[in-house]
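Weekend entry, working from home. Most of the wet-lab plans are on hold until the incubator is repaired, so I used the time to fold the two sequences that have been sitting in the queue since the last round of cloning. Logging both here for the record. First:
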Amino acid sequence: MEQYAGLVCRWLAQGFLALATLTFVIQWLLPRGRKYFRYQQSSEESTTGRGDNSDEERKTRMRQKLQQEHTQKANSYKERILAPREEAKRVQKEEEFEKFLGPAWKGQGHSLGGADSKESDSAGVGGESPPNRSAARRRKLLEEPTSSPGEVKTKTVKAKPVIKLPDEPEEGEKNCVNVILRTPIGKQCSRRFLHTHTVKVLLDFMATLGFSQTYYTISMSYPRLNLSEHLNKTMWEMGFQRQVTLNVEEKDT
């Protein structure tokens, strides 16, 4: 009996000793294990962060490269196409301005009909006048005076045609369309027209805004269409129902 009790006590002592040893090992390993796992996690996060940063830098460099290529293409297009086109327009406008002013007369003038003393001085060899002066003298003799000596002659100036637009429909009317014109100077002008009004009325409206039909026209953005080629079509035939936005553009020369 005493041997059995001593054996049980020895087992209990060994069990307590093993439990104490296990507790000591756990308390010694647990903090160090936590530190190790934290270190591993932080290293993985830093590696991932460096990878993300490298991806962002690569994307940024690609965007900068694409932007530089786009800028180079835009500058090349401006130098090759836009600059010559603007220069050609400038030269054409200067030529039209010179035609409008008219050439300056630099030659020597000759009177078609004058006093007898001038005619005698300018007579040709043998006392005969040139044929053109003789004809001018005959025309002068055949003409009859149409006004008295004291009457002042006035020139009749041909008046420019006045553009008169049709009455604008009331707001909310069913059979009308609201037309918005975008001008080259960035201004937008709107007006209502009936469905039965023709495209010619739109061009007249453009002219009242200060854009001559000689140099400007109205076009649609999509589908691309020049309305100057469809003057007799109505708004309804062009597909303008409630509202439409059109562009005032300079004619291509």
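Second, folded right after the first finished:
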Amino acid sequence: MWNRFILLNVIALTFSFLALAYEPSPLQDFCVADPSSSVTCKNPMQVQAADFFFSGLHLRGNTSNQLGSKVTPVFATQLPGLNTLGISMVRIDYAPWGLNPPHTHPRATEILTVLEGTLQVGFVTSNPDNRFITKVLQKGDVFVFPVGLVHFQRNVGNGNAVVIAALSSQNPGAITIANAVFGANPSIPWDILARAFQVDKSVVDQLQAKF
């Protein structure tokens, strides 16, 4: 009987830790972020409709950059009413053949829908399989990227492309692989990168110089 009691407690604690690994459920109707403090909510009696409102996702993002893409975020920073609700969204614009490069969201699953254009999307599963799962999406298609996995989107059409994506965190975070590896500050020692990628120092130097 005692062993069964211990087992049930271990199971309960396990599920408790799993639940705490993600954003907890709010304990009140809302907790609008207070711009004057990083830890407190706005007084609920002072909250206005503007705290739950954002305008601008109808505007095309500027894709005149090396990657040919632009992410317009709607996180708690832009929409204070999202604070503690565990959700956010982005608009992503792509020039013809524009790329949202391989990256991860350490705190969120992402689901996107194509509003315009044709996109190749894909993600890579974790070690040791490292399976590359990819698909070409058309207008109206939906695709999901599991939390933490490296993924990308590329416009494979001759016109512009647009998606709207939702993320399961008010602050999903983004780690762009190339920036993190070759643009770290301070730099990752060249010999570590050379050995990891099986390349010469000159190649590492060239890549670090770009980032």
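Plan for Monday: verify the second prediction. The CA atoms of residues 193 and 199 lie 8 Å apart.
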